Amino acid sequence: MIKLNQIYQAKQKISDFILKTPFVHSSFLSDFLQTEIFLKCENLQKTGAYKIRGAYNAIANLTQEQRQLGVIAASAGNHAQGVAISAKKFDIKAVIVMPEATPLLKVSATKNLGAQVILHGDNFDEAYSFALNYAKEQDLNFIHPFENEQIIAGQGTIMLEMLDEINDLDMILAPVGGGGLISGIASVAKQINPDIKVVGVSAKGAPAMFESFYNKNIINSKFVRTIADGIAVRDVNKINFDIILECVDEFIQVDDEEIANAVLYLLEKHKMIVEGAGACAVGALLHKKVNLKGHKKVGVVLSGGNIDVQMLNIIIEKGLFKSFRKMCINVTLVDKPGALMALSDAIKEANANIVKIDYDRFSTKLDYGDAMIFITLETKGKEHQELVRKILFEKGFNFNEI
Questions:
Q1: Per the UniProt record, which EC number(s) apply here (predicted)?
Q2: What is the C-alpha to C-alpha distance for residues 20 and 35, in angstroms, rounded to an integer?
């Protein structure tokens, strides 16, 4: 594990630059789980993620000669912004290599902080490999996103802040990709109070660290696929793996559906925008994958809030359908004046709101003289949707749900 004095030194170095983020009680989750749940809101950190802590600590520890050469990093976005803003603070050159599929929000934010951005590879590991070679070619200092003791020490300051506010926490949940965050958190927890249970939560679509943990041996993945791009790491590194084996008590996986549910839950209940990686631990709690028996105060790290707007829109739309607040139907009508009005009158009688409507007169599945109408409706829950179906059926409309 990382020595506690290293993490206290990191806290001293970064305290004038990073934000001490809120550590708030979640009444919604606490009532749902009958355990006191507290959310560490690193989504409200400068640059929108915890990564700035480790990045700033690593750059602050460079010699003057190293700073003159400049720095380079590989990142899916959050570490990129942390390195970029830290380099800007020290007035040094920064090059960031990002996977080609990195959301535009994160690419633009990194460029706006003054860094040069190179897009390369299909995932973090391919970007990482390119960045290592580029660092040697250009004589730049490589700032690793998680396989670096100074990075880990910086991330560990999150745990110090949580314990400063609530010193009797008995469980911590944190998302895991490369493992830098949970390595720092677990190092602090186990040295201050070994009885604190440390639980890592990873995405099912990026299973390397999860499988390695339970096999007690490094097992890299062949590919990764998850909406939690911040923890979409294919390969396991030895430094973090060793700390995780030593200090982490349990590992849990969540799938993309559970992650999306958590993103939407945090948006609706707490009015907080949290990215997929940051919502993983809440996803594990919502779907009751964590054994809370015997635990009274649980800290949950919301690691970041830099979610792509298009992804957020998809999550919201799918969430509305799953929670029976939207439904989509197609109805076959005789293509003549008044037919659509009769349909809209039936929908009006059901007190549903039409938000989108499309026509298809040319499908080979239609009889001549018919039209297929696609309608998206706003509804008020499961019972309301049953009423819509009942009225349409009684009015004689032939419809299917999409």
A1: 4.3.1.19
A2: 25
Cβ 159 vs Cβ 184: under 8 Å: yes
Residue 402 CA to residue 394 CA, distance in Å, equals 20
CA 187 to chain centre: 23
pLDDT computed for residue 231 by the predictor: 92
Buried b (16+ CB within 10 A) or exposed e, 195-230: ebbbbbbbbbbbbbbbbbbeeeebeebeebebbbbb
For 71, the token pair is 């720095």
Do residues 157 and 7 lie in contact, with contact meaning Cβ atoms separated by under 8 Å? yes
pLDDT in tens, 161-211: 999 999 999 999 999 999 999 999 999 999 999 999 999 999 999 999 999
The Cα–Cα gap between 149 and 54 comes to 9
Per-residue pLDDT band for 73 (boundaries 50, 70, 90) equals very high
Single out the residue of 143, 139, 87, 147 nearest to residue 111, CA to CA: 87
pLDDT tens track for 311-342: 999 999 999 999 999 999 999 988 888 888 99
**Alpha-carbon span 253 to 208, nearest angstrom:** 11
- φ and ψ at 19, to 5 degrees? -90, 145
With the C-alpha atoms ordered 154, 155, 161, 167, is the resulting torsion angle positive or negative? negative
Model-level pTM?
A: 0.89
Using 50, 70 and 90 to split pLDDT, how confident is the model at 102? confident
Structure tokens belonging to residue 3: 């020595």
Question: Rounded to the nearest 5°, which phi and psi values hold at 223?
Answer: -160, 165
**CA 315, 317, 318, 324: dihedral to nearest 10 degrees?**
130
Cβ proximity of 113 and 85 under 8 Å? yes
> Do residues 70 and 92 make contact, with C-beta atoms less than 8 angstroms apart?
yes
The values of phi and psi at residue 52, to 5°, are: -60, -30
